[in-house]
C-alpha cells in the first residue's frame, strides 16, 4: 500500500448514511410521511473523523473498504473532495458499501437500520501493508464491527504504531456479542487514548458505575480514557487523575449523528498541536457540539474558524 502523505491515518468503519428529519413514526402499510430534509452523508468512525480532520486543516489519510456501487463511489469521491487521501480505501466488489438509514426524531436521537457490507471486507493485509513513516496519530475506529481485522490484525497494527512512536487512539462499538471482548481487550495495552461513549463504556465494562468502568479500562492497559457523555460533556481519566469533567456547549440540537466522531477529530487535532488533555477535550467538545446543530456527520464544521467562533461565543452546559 502506498505511503500515506498524512499526519493522521484513520482505519475502520466507512458508512454512507441516509438521514431524514423529522420522523414521528413509520407510516403503516404503504403510507407516506413528508419530511423536512433528507441527506446522504459520509459517516463511520474512520470516515467521518477523517472528513472532520480535513476540514480542520489536518493532513489525513483513511484505510478501509467500500463496495463497487454508487454508494462506494459517493464515499470515495466525497472524501477525496474534502481533502482526505483515499488511496487506502479499497474497493471490494463482493460486498455492498456499508450503509445506515437514520430516521431522526425531534430530540436529535435516532434509531439505526444498518448493513455491515464492505466493512466486513477489510483484510489483515490492508493493515499489514500500511506504511506509517511520518504519521503522528493512528486512529482505529469501529472495533467489534470489523470482523476481518478485529483481534490480532488490529493488535498488530496498534503495536507497530506504538513501537514507531505514533500516538494511538481508538473507538469501538460493542454489539453485545461474544466476540466483542476478543476484539477490544487485546488492543487496549497499545492504546494511548480510548474514546467510548458513556453508554458503550459502561456496557462493555459490565457496570453501571463510571468509576468502576474507569478502573476497568485503565487496568486493561489504556493510558487515557476519554468518555463522551453527550450533553453532559466528557470525563477524562489518566493514571494520575480520574474523572476530570468538562462541560459541553449548549447548542440547538438537530441531530446527534457523528458527534462522537467529531469529538475524536477535535481531540486528535489538539494532540497534534501539542495540547494537554484539557485543551484537546475543549476542541473535541466544540466539534461535537457543532455537528449536533445540523443533519448528518458532516454538519456544523466547515473549518477551524467555526470551532474558534463557538468557543469564543458559546454557552457552556452543566458538568
From TrEMBL:
Keywords: Kinase, Transferase. Residues 7-299 form the Carbohydrate kinase PfkB domain. GO terms for molecular function: kinase activity. This is Sugar kinase. It comes from Microbacterium galbum.
